[in-house]
Write a structure and sequence with these properties.
The complex is a heterodimer of chains A (382) and B (391). Chain A has 382 residues and is α+β, with helices and mostly antiparallel strands. Helix content of chain A is 50%, strand content 16%. Chain A is built from eleven helices and nine strands. In chain A, helix 8 packs antiparallel against helix 9. Chain B folds into three domains: 83 residues, no CATH class; 109 residues, Beta Barrel (Butyryl-CoA Dehydrogenase, subunit A, domain 2), CATH 2.40.110; 141 residues, Up-down Bundle (Butyryl-CoA Dehydrogenase, subunit A, domain 3). Chain B has twelve helices and ten strands. A four-stranded mixed β-sheet of chain B has the order 1-4-5-8. Chain B has a four-stranded antiparallel β-sheet with strand order 2-3-7-6, with no helix packed on it. Chain B has a two-stranded antiparallel sheet with strand order 9-10. In chain B, helix 4 runs parallel beside helix 8, helix 8 runs antiparallel to helix 9 and helix 10 runs antiparallel to helix 12. Classes of the chains: A alpha+beta (382), B alpha+beta (391). Chain A: Its cofactor is FAD.
């Protein structure tokens, strides 16, 4: 049991932090980037690729770095620290992760190098209106004719769905949910992108007899989707930790400088105690997120570990996000000041792949099956 | 970053688990599990069983019975002890005065007290809080005035836990009322509870139990050799001692045990034809508490892994704050599961209410104390805001 980062991991953090702090030196830069499509900075994306970060979790033979979940966690946290809008988790961890987990060797060889180089930005088209946080598809269907497949139906919201050059799509097949690849310029594909409240982008993606290629060798991919979602939930937990950390530090700094009634706000215990509670929430969530990445690294039950991290970071994110604004006062609600953007991003993270209540309900279903929870024992450490 | 315990630590954990579940009398552990009244004799028997195996004071210097364990080993030792419902070594002895004497006492005092303290041959109680000195402990007013070879103590202490069992008291007294800072004029004296001039008045708590007392001192003569450390340095020793008090105060193993009991009882109660444990609201409430406890346990592991240099990790205040809240939440859960049975607190023979349900409410009421003692949660928030956030 060891909760410390090794020196290479510390170097990685320092390098990523340096790059992202240069790119987003203040919140106005992010605001400007978020104002125009594709909602992130293509140059920053290229720099992330040059540093090897966009291929971080992929095998070296596919152009990746062969790094583990801890390295992914470090990058995600640094992204959260400046709420960089670059879709690292969406494109690399989730869409890329599915290609790496399910794709044939040929597909991996063809696609992952492009992701790692920053030339290809894939998106996972999975959510459907009328269901939520499911591991299966229900309204988009796949039809086979000989060797070829076509898709029909609507996916929405698809994060970065309009910018993506290739879509990983879940669709109903005989016996479950299959995964497919659809090229951005495919016939019968209509994409309508829009800005989301947190400054990123999502899209309505409509398939109308759209040609698609089977990702992998077919069959029901529900388990692979569940696992990929779990890994992305863990990564989002780390992004949330980074964002909460900055929101708290910004708030503490504000309390020390803002004056009312002739004194700085940190003279009011009603405020400092609430900041202390934010710290408690943050550190408990941080421990859980780090642990979930260690469970993933150790090959333990990543799905349940992700639910635990999701639950803790969801509750903490709401607590810290709301309090950060309240302790600032009116300035916190403005788009001209940074802290409200952090709350907005935390809110988006909370809802993209499942919120705290969702995770709690899943953990509740198995509560009778265990006497106690041992985070260092089965099913987490194997 | 690595999740698994090393094979050595895994073996250590197994060794602790085996010892606690086989070498400490079952009937004492059942009593702890059932939140029943543990008698003085039972505390003594349990601590002597631990001490005989070198497991009562592993955190002391090796010379005096310590084991030179890592913080992580100590954490495992404590958690396994709580999981097995073993009464922990008396905190006043093992965590408080013992380490203070070992660190600041003279050789004669170490030889006189430490072995007996470890073995609970001497039962110590704590003379710190006073009616007008609670969280603001440095305002204490009990005085010790030098008279020849003695100190003469006058004043009053309160919240003296289990003072009714105590043989000796360690007592903070004001020895220099003229000191510029009130912290500077305090000394630490130790003396037997049967010294003439010492009287004890039990205080009944809202659970109907008697665990704290007021202690009054009227011209109590204490030999000068019973001063621990240097005169007027008592505040430093108190801070050292209270730092130790905070270690392990999160009581994660004990809360884990309570949640397991809650599930067991919720299985036995039927609501609308199915077990209460299957009610989605109840199951989610327990799942949330379990998750909070996982988060706390992992934070404790982070803290112990990073406090190898002896200094407490800044996040240790989180452990006290959240640990006490979760202990309280678990006791509240048990009352809620007991439902109407929870009023049968003082039922005796002739009642069919199970024992766990009878003790649920007194335990819940008693546990309001845990967010007050050991540095109240408001003190912890002050520490977090001040020393961590710089506010």
């Amino acid at each position: 049991m060891d909760f410390t980062f090794d020196s290479e991991q510390n170097d990685l953090r320092e390098a990523v932090r340096g790059l992202l702090e240069r790119a987003y030196s203040d919140s106005e830069v992010r605001r400007k980037v978020a104002a125009t499509d594709p909602g992130f900075d293509e140059k920053t994306w290229s720099r992330l690729a040059e540093m090897g970060l966009l291929g971080l979790p992929f095998a070296e033979e596919h152009g990746g770095m062969g790094a583990g979940p801890i390295e992914v966690a470090i990058v995600a946290e640094e992204i959260g620290r400046v709420i960089a809008p670059e879709p690292f988790i969406e494109a690399v961890v989730l869409a890329g992760g599915l290609i790496a987990a399910v794709g044939t060797d040929e597909q991996k060889g063809e696609l992952l190098a492009g992701v790692a180089e920053g030339t290809s930005v894939p998106a996972f088209a999975h959510a459907e209106i009328g269901t939520r946080w499911s591991t299966s598809a229900s309204s988009v269907t796949a039809t086979q004719a000989g060797e070829s497949w076509t898709l029909s139906g609507v996916k929405e919201p698809v994060p970065n769905g309009a910018r993506a050059d290739v879509l990983v799509v879940s669709a109903v097949v005989d016996g479950g949910t299959g995964l497919f690849l659809v090229q951005g310029d495919a016939a019968g594909l209509t994409r309508t992108g829009y800005r989301t409240h947190d400054g990123t982008r999502a899209a309505n993606v409509r398939f109308d007899g759209t040609p698609a290629t089977l990702l992998g060798t077919g069959g029901d991919q529900t388990a692979a989707i569940e696992r990929a979602l779990a890994e992305a939930r863990i990564a989002y937990s780390h992004e949330a930790i980074g964002a909460m950390d900055t929101a708290l530090r910004t708030t503490a700094e504000y309390l020390k400088t803002r004056k009312q009634f002739g004194v700085t706000l940190n003279r009011f215990q009603a405020l400092t105690f609430r900041a202390a509670d934010m710290y408690v929430s943050l550190e408990l969530a941080r421990s859980t997120a780090l642990w979930a990445s260690m469970v993933q690294d150790a090959g333990g039950d990543v799905v349940s570990a992700a639910d635990r991290a999701r639950l803790q970071t969801s509750r903490a994110g709401r607590h810290i996000g709301k309090e950060a604004i309240q302790l600032h006062g009116g300035i916190g609600v403005t788009a001209e000041y940074s802290v409200g953007h952090y709350t907005s991003r935390l809110t988006a993270i909370d809802h993209l792949l499942g919120d705290g209540d969702f995770a709690a309900a899943r953990l509740a279903r198995t509560v009778a099956d265990r006497e106690t929870v041992d985070p260092l024992g089965a099913p987490y450490a194997v | 970053m690595r999740l698994q315990l090393s094979p050595e630590l895994e073996a250590f954990r197994e060794e602790m688990r085996t010892f606690f579940t086989t070498q400490v009398p079952q009937q004492i552990r059942d009593k702890v599990a059932g939140h029943g009244h543990v008698s003085k004799e039972e505390y003594v028997e349990a601590q002597r069983a631990l001490n005989a195996a070198g497991l009562a004071v592993p955190h002391w210097p090796v010379e005096w019975g310590g084991r030179d364990w890592t913080p992580l080993q100590r954490h495992i030792w404590r958690e396994e002890m709580q999981l097995a419902n073993v009464p922990e070594p008396l905190a006043f002895n093992a965590s408080m005065i013992g380490p203070v004497i070992a660190a600041f006492g003279n050789q004669e005092q170490k030889e006189r007290f430490l072995a007996k303290t470890a073995n609970l041959d001497i039962w110590w109680c704590q003379g710190f809080s006073e009616p007008d000195a609670g969280s603001d402990l440095a305002s204490l007013r009990t005085t010790a005035v030098r008279d020849g070879d003695d100190w003469v103590v006058n004043g009053q202490k309160t919240w003296t836990t289990l003072g009714q069992h105590a043989d000796w008291i360690f007592c903070l007294c004001r020895t220099d009322p003229t000191a510029e800072k009130k912290q500077r004029g305090i000394s630490l004296l130790v003396f037997p509870m049967d010294t003439p001039g010492v009287t004890l008045r039990p205080i009944e708590l809202i659970d109907g139990g008697f665990e704290v007392n007021e202690v009054f001192f009227e011209d109590v003569r204490v030999p000068a050799e019973n001063l621990i450390g240097e005169e007027n340095r008592g505040w430093d020793y108190a801070k050292f001692l209270l730092g130790n008090e905070r270690v392990g105060i999160a009581r994660i193993g004990s809360t884990k045990r309570m949640l397991a009991q809650a599930k067991e009882h919720a299985r036995e109660i039927t609501v609308d034809g199915r077990p209460l444990l299957e009610d989605p609201f109840m199951a989610t409430r327990i799942a949330e508490l379990e998750n909070e406890l996982v988060a706390l346990e992992l934070t404790a592991l982070r803290v112990v892994a990073n406090s190898a240099d002896g200094k407490p990790h800044p996040a240790s205040s989180v452990l006290k704050l959240r640990g006490s809240e979760l202990q309280q939440a678990a006791t509240e859960l048990l009352v809620d599961i007991a439902g109407p049975l929870s009023v049968a607190s003082f039922a005796e023979e002739g009642s069919d209410v199970p024992a766990w349900a009878r003790v649920a409410t007194p335990h819940y009421l008693n546990y309001r104390k845990v967010s007050i003692y050991g540095g109240s949660n408001e003190v912890q928030r002050t520490i977090i805001a001040g020393t961590i956030l710089g506010l």
